[in-house]
């Protein structure tokens, strides 16, 4: 990540971010923005006009007492404010529209981009952190477009018109009044620079907070069962305090320009009163022009002060832009190669050839694995925890790229076929059951978008789920709530089996599908799995050997190395480690 403290690059970097934001997201709304710019010019002119109108008010009405001027001047003042009001309304509706569109486009883009990223990225990033990019950061960007950048144009234009008016009224007085301006520029830039860093920290703290909250709400059962309410409350409270102190630091920094700008404004106005007042007393200047000038000057300081603060605001919002664009710039490592072809499944035989694999920055997890998984048969992976079973399984749908060697399905290297076709021929059922906050029907149809009701019911029947679904209040249309918490573990697993059933993929990966279930649910799920596995190439990971002892082939993996291959009865004879594993599970059962 680029740091903001490297001052020479910062202004360039700021402009790069703004350019990217405007070019990629504001450009499609150019028409709206042009119209908004026109209304901004009208607003700026209407803001300056009252200062000019002061001149006839003083000279014609108060000094010369011309009664004929009273109504026209009054009407002009009312007219100016009316025009300003209408123009401001149009301008804020237009910029609001553009800002909301930019948010919507950015959120869609960000999600479409992230969803293509590697699984590894999601495993290493908390969901709360990702969510905060979509909420906190994107909202800050909206303020950048609708608030800060718009005000930059509006206040900038107003300022220019006021300065022109002052020079028109009295160039010498204007030069004296504005000499203080350059003095304000340096501190304002400095504040802005520090602001980017401080707000980056605030946003990161917010992301951590979102993460903490979602973990706490998801793990409420655990928190309550362990009596951790107080500890969790303390953790949240610590985070809230952290955000408070960082936000306060940002507020202090953002407000630091106020005393300086007020003081400089006071000095300029003081000098003008001294010099200009003297001229009116001497008779070289008329009071109307002087009042018009001093009104313009006082009014100039308002947009000027806002502009001084604007840099700090902008830097705060650009810290968010930086975080969002950093995500957008991520390039997934697992993508189709240029010459990728769709996979052609014949029988669904899987071969691992001399596979080495390591997670990033870690030592090897799999070492020189060579293995053949027969088509249409069931192969079980067993072995001690952390041995590499799930890792091996994850290489088949290419969730990770191998470090060395090849994974082949029907003699086609998985890294050379299209990911879409590869994953469409694989169905995965794992112990971690993911159900969406939708109807039972939609959750099953997830396995085959557009599936008919008949196909859904057939899949549910085959997964031994039809009966319990029919007993639900609205049958297949029942909303199952977030992650199906209203269903039992076994019911949820049978829904996920129905989902795999409807996908009708030739290759089936089962990652401990029954390990989280009690014996009664397990039996029903086993029954559903047997139907699902029929005729498919199945690779199943199991902790309990009893669930896989009928497998056509069992592979014992330990510390990333294949220790033994064979059927249950063969392994009992040939592998001491397997026999011991079997023995220990048997005695566990006896104890139970
Ligand atoms: N995403 C990951 N990033 C880094 N290391 C990982 C990741 N996933 C697993 N590992 C490590 O790789 C090794 C093998 O893990 P793996 O999950 O494949 O084992 P396993 O045999 O399936 O274990 P278990 O039976 O407990 O599920 C372990 O040391 C684990 O800590």
Automatic annotation (TrEMBL):
It comes from Candidatus Nucleicultrix amoebiphila FS5. Residues 304-331 form a coiled coil. Its main location: membrane. It holds the Pfam family ABC_tran. InterPro entries: AAA+_ATPase, ABC1_TM_dom, ABC1_TM_sf, ABC_transporter-like_ATP-bd, ABC_transporter-like_CS, P-loop_NTPase, Type_1_exporter. Keywords: ATP-binding, Coiled coil, Membrane, Nucleotide-binding, Transmembrane, Transmembrane helix. SUPFAM superfamilies: ABC transporter transmembrane region, P-loop containing nucleoside triphosphate hydrolases. PROSITE patterns: ABC_TM1F, ABC_TRANSPORTER_1, ABC_TRANSPORTER_2. This is ABC transporter permease. SMART domains: AAA. It comes from the Bacteria. GO terms for cellular component: plasma membrane. It is found in: Cell membrane. Residues 34-316 form the ABC transmembrane type-1 domain. It is a multi-pass membrane protein.
